[in-house]
Design brief:
single chain, 175 residues, mainly beta, seven-stranded mixed beta sheet, four-stranded antiparallel beta sheet, 1 helix, 11 strands
């Protein structure tokens, strides 16, 4: 069982390690949305000690906004595309999605978090706190992708759903 997981996880680990080998940058307040933001990760179903990629799951990214004077504004939220057969998701946020609805000015982003949002499975539908899937994984380090669009690509998770409510915050040994 662990071998099956490892084989499907290897391509993502290679992708992530190649992204991070070229350099990761930490964000500071106010600079987050100078270009498009991408948030990627993996979502699994944990049944016992077995992790299985969860196809069709959705993650949510919520960002706190502030106006030009630093006053808090309404949060902006985007949903990821549904995960593929390997549990991979990508959510994107552009500056046009952060504009104030009245003044049409782009607002400052103070902080963004990624959460588990939706499981397509009736038998594996409870979000877990593994890698802050419930409380929200803070977007901290990114890799700048400069082909075609300039995107700050953040990686979170992996996030995990389970068949029952759980308080487990760790990934099982070997994963």
């Amino acid at each position: 069982m662990a071998q099956t997981f490892s084989l499907c996880f290897v391509p993502y680990m290679l992708l992530l390690s190649s992204l991070f080998a070229a350099g990761v940058t930490t964000i500071t307040e106010g600079e987050l949305l100078s270009s498009m933001i991408g948030v990627q990760g993996l979502i699994y179903c944990k049944q016992g000690s077995k992790l299985t990629p969860l196809q069709g799951a959705v993650a949510r990214v919520t960002c706190e906004r502030a106006d030009e004077y630093g006053y808090e504004a309404e949060d902006v939220t985007v949903l990821s595309q549904a995960t593929d057969a390997k549990g991979y998701f990508l959510a994107t946020l552009s500056s046009s999605e952060v504009k104030d609805s009245y003044s049409k000015k782009v607002m400052r982003i103070k902080e963004c978090r990624a959460f588990l949002e939706l499981s397509p499975s009736d038998t594996c539908s409870f979000p877990t706190e593994i890698n802050r899937g419930i409380s929200g994984a803070i977007l901290q380090n990114y890799r700048l992708l400069e082909f075609k669009l300039k995107m700050k690509l953040f990686t979170v998770g992996p996030f995990v759903f389970s068949p029952e409510e759980t308080h487990d915050k760790s990934i099982p040994n070997g994963y």
